[in-house]
Amino acid sequence: MTSLGEGEYALLDQSWHDAITPDAARRMLIAAAHAFADKGYHATTTRDIAARAGMSPAAVYIHYRSKEDLLFQISKVGHERSLKVLTAVQDPDPRDRMAKTVAAFARWHAEFRTTARVVQYELGSLSPEHHAVVAELRRKIETHVRQIVEDGVKAGSFETPDQNGTALAVLSLCIDVARWYRPDGKRTPEDIGTLYADLALRMLSKSV
Amino acid sequence: MTSLGEGEYALLDQSWHDAITPDAARRMLIAAAHAFADKGYHATTTRDIAARAGMSPAAVYIHYRSKEDLLFQISKVGHERSLKVLTAVQDPDPRDRMAKTVAAFARWHAEFRTTARVVQYELGSLSPEHHAVVAELRRKIETHVRQIVEDGVKAGSFETPDQNGTALAVLSLCIDVARWYRPDGKRTPEDIGTLYADLALRMLSKSV
DNA sequence: GTCTATAGCCCGATAGAC
DNA sequence: GTCTATCGGGCTATAGAC
After folding, report:
1. Nearest alpha-carbon partner for B28 in B48, B6, B42
2. Shortest Cα distance from A137 to chain B (angstroms)?
3. Which residues bind DNA (chains A, B) (predicted)?
C-alpha cells in the first residue's frame, strides 16, 4: 500500500526508469522524493519513506547507505535532468533559443515539481561532499543561460543594462515555479512555459 | 555568547523592536529566525535557538508555547512587514507605482533575507490554524500586485497576454530573491530593486 | 524569569533470522 | 533481499529549585 495513485507512480517511474535500478531501489527513491517534496528532508523519517514504498524501515538500508544518500541520488539525477532539458534546445536564432530554453526549463519545474522541489530546496541538507557535486551541475546551468543572453546581445537581438543580472532573473523565475505550482491549478506546465518564454523575451527586448 | 556579530544583531533588533517585547523574548525570536533561515525549521533544535540567544533550552518556553509558536510569530510579523512594504508605495502613475513597488518588495527580500526565507520557505511547518492566518496575509499580497497590473492595463500603460500570470511572475521573481541572495555578493539590495523594477516594466511593456 | 535535570518519545541505523 | 526487533542517542517539553 502506498499513498500515491497508480498514475502518479507510473509517471515518476517512467522518469526515473533509466537512472535507478533495481525496482525496489527505484520505488524507495520515488517514495523518498515525494516525502521530501511534501514535508522537507528533515521532517521526513525513514519510516515515512519505507511506508510510502510499502516496505519495512530496514529496507531503506539495503539499497542506500543513509537517508542523506537517498537525498543525494534524487538531487544528482534531478540536476542532471534539468541541465539536459536546457542543453537539448538547439536553435541558431538567439531569440528562439532563449524562448525554447525558458519554455522547457519552466515547464520542467512544473511538470516534475516533486523532483524540482527537492533539487531546489534541499541543497542545504546534503553533506559537503555531495553538495559540491551538485554545485558543479548548478554552475553549468547558470553558465548555460548566461551564454544565451551573451550571444543574443552580441548578435544584436537583446538589449539589457545588466546581462548577468537578467540571466539570473530569468533562471530565478523558472526555478520559483517549483515553489508555487500546484498540479490542480488553472495553468498547465505548457501554459507556464509559453507565458514565461514571452516574459523572458520582454525582459531582453530592445524597445522599452 | 552568540554566533552573530553585533552589527547583525543591532540591525535585526531594530527591525523587530516595536513588534516583540520583552527583550529576552525578542532575542530568542531573532535567534530562532537566524537558525530557521540557516538550517530550516525541522533541522533546528530548541537547543540551537537557546544557544544562539545565550540562554538555556528551557528559557524558550518562558516566552513561547512551543517551537512552532516561535515560527508562527516570525512568519506572522514577517508577512505583515512585507505587506506593509507593498502598501506603503503610493503613486498615481501605474508605471511608477509598479516600479516602486517591485523595487521595494525585491529589496526587502534581499535586505531582510533571514526573515524572508522563514516567511517564504517554512509555511508548511506551521500548524493548520497558524497557516490559515498567514495564508490570508499572502492573499492580500497577491491581490495587491494584481491590482497594480489591472490598473495599468486599464489606464493603457501596460500590455500583457495574461494579467494574472504576469502579476504572479513579478511576485515570484521578487520572492525568489530570498533564495539566491547572499549578503557578500556583488549586488546590493538596492541594486536588485533597481534591476527588478526595470524588468517588471519590461514584462508589462506595450512594445515587444 | 532563569536555571539544572530529566521524563517520555521518536529517530537513524544495525543485528540476525529467514 | 526483506523482515522483526532493538540499540543508542537526541529531540521537545516539563518539573522544581532558586
Report:
1. B48
2. 16
3. 45-64
